[in-house]
Specification:
This protein has helices at 3-14, 31-46, 90-103, 130-136, 154-161, 191-195, 233-248, 286-306, 326-336, 350-354, 381-397, and strands spanning 50-53, 59-63, 71-77, 111-117, 178-186, 199-205, 207-216, 255-264, 274-283, 310-319, 322-323, 342-345, 360-365. By secondary structure, it is an alpha/beta fold. It folds into two domains: 3-206 and 321-397, Zn peptidases (Aminopeptidase, 3-Layer(aba) Sandwich), CATH 3.40.630.10; 207-319, Alpha-Beta Plaits. Helix 2 (31-46) runs parallel beside helix 3, helix 7 packs antiparallel against helix 8 and helix 9 (326-336) packs across helix 11. It starts with a helix and ends with a helix. The structure holds glyoxylic acid and manganese (II) ion (2 copies). The site of glyoxylic acid has 3 residues, from loops.
Length: 398
């Protein structure tokens, strides 16, 4: 069997489990998710795994190991962003199943589970990572009441899909029984392509914070209020946004982004009275992220004052940076061979939440043009074949 080509075939097939529109749109607990789950169940079956859906909507495929052996967990997410690609998340599930299928009925040193998590992207509900957080014991049941854009709560959606909201907190695993967690994922950036390498081993996953900012000024007629008499909230907000590239440059590798913004009244002939935006900051070092957030808050206040406005600045989400486990990193390095690049991840992953349960490490695959979160996302069958080999070697060695 050409394992890389088989991966490409399976990913093309499951990419059709998508809402209409360009690329792949597969949100958790939808008809598209259900269709994808049927295919993943088939992949897991071919890999010799016993399959069940857990209370948090994670599809779990398990292969028993020798008596008393711990469990090696391998996973990624089935969901996508809106108009995303055919590789982000789902490829890690497909390659894990293929690596186990390739190992066949050969004796392995440990039990192995493949975990197909429901909701890593956090696009449908204003929360994410329910599956891994449940396993790690860090799940906050309060998020079950959060609703999607149609007013459907996470609790209702999960129950309708066959999960059990009341039992999610009880999914917590015993860390002593978990050997470690591995995740394969497209890099989503240009480093491996530039290095001419098919795979790389991840050193750490960035920390992330989101800050909710509201700039308040005063609306008025766009044709009559003199320029010097205005309190334009968008002038204040854009003053902050335009400085972000320069501000971020003070901390190597730090990223600062305003990707979401709402204007009021948002009409062409009225001065913007209110601007709400989300400032997301990511960094490998939590201290850099904190220092950048403090600088941004000062700048936001200064720009607001200069425009006669006010601003509030509130952290709405935080996820610390996590380092990959040095021993698991060594296992992946040995499996991948001499000279494999080591690189940090600026995207977040299910692995960041699994790190609260057990040691974790990740293998990245080169993706064309470094493109991700868009329909053009692509990893070659050859590179996927390499990654399957590396993972199979690591599973057999651990
Ligand atoms: C998910 O892909 C993220 O990094 O936000
Ligand atoms: Mn993603
Ligand atoms: Mn992903």
């Amino acid at each position: 069997m050409d394992w890389g080509k088989e991966a490409a075939r399976r990913l093309a097939e499951i990419a059709t489990c998508s809402a209409p529109g360009p690329g792949v749109t597969r949100f958790p607990f939808t008809a598209e998710h259900r269709a994808a789950q049927a295919l993943i169940t088939g992949w897991m079956g071919r890999a010799g795994l016993e399959v069940h859906l857990d209370a948090a909507g994670t599809l779990v495929g398990r292969r028993e190991g020798p008596a008393g052996a711990r469990t090696l967990l391998i996973g990624s997410h089935q969901d996508s962003v809106r108009g995303g690609g055919a590789y982000d998340g789902i490829m890690g599930i497909a390659l894990a199943c293929l690596a186990l299928e390739r190992l066949g009925d050969r004796d392995l040193p440990n039990a192995v589970e493949v975990l197909a998590f429901a909701d890593e992207e956090g696009v449908r509900f204003p929360t994410a990572l329910m599956g891994p957080r449940a396993l790690a014991g860090t799940f906050d049941p309060g998020v079950l009441d959060r609703c999607d854009a149609d007013g459907v709560s996470l609790r209702e959606a999960l129950a309708g899909f066959g999960g059990d909201p009341g039992a999610v907190a009880g999914l917590k695993r015993d860390p002593a029984r978990a050997l470690g967690y591995l995740e394969l994922h497209i890099e989503q950036g240009p480093v491996l392509e530039r290095a001419g390498q098919p795979v790389g081993v991840v050193s750490s996953i960035c920390g992330i914070e989101r800050n909710a900012l509201t700039f308040r000024g005063e609306t008025g007629h766009a044709g009559t209020v003199p320029m010097e008499a205005r309190r334009d909230a968008l002038v204040a907000a854009s003053g902050l946004i335009s400085t972000l590239p320069g501000v971020a440059a003070d901390w190597p590798g730090l990223r600062a982004t305003v990707g979401e913004m709402h204007l009021h009244p948002n009409v062409a002939n009225a001065i913007p009275e209110e601007v709400r935006l989300v400032l997301e900051i990511r960094a490998e070092r939590d201290a850099d992220r904190g220092a950048c957030a403090a600088r941004c808050q000062e700048l936001a206040e200064a720009r607001a004052r200069a425009a006669g406005c006010e601003v509030s600045f509130e952290r709405s989400y935080e996820q610390p940076a996590v380092a990959c486990d040095p021993e698991l990193v060594s296992v992946l390095r040995r499996a991948a061979g001499e000279g494999v690049p080591i690189l940090p991840s600026g995207a977040t992953h299910d692995a960041s939440a699994m790190a609260d349960l057990c040691p974790m490490a990740m293998l990245f695959l080169r993706c064309r043009g470094g493109l991700s979160h868009r329909p053009e996302e692509f990893a070659s069958p050859e590179d996927m074949g390499v990654a399957i080999e590396v993972l199979a070697r690591a599973i057999a060695e651990m």
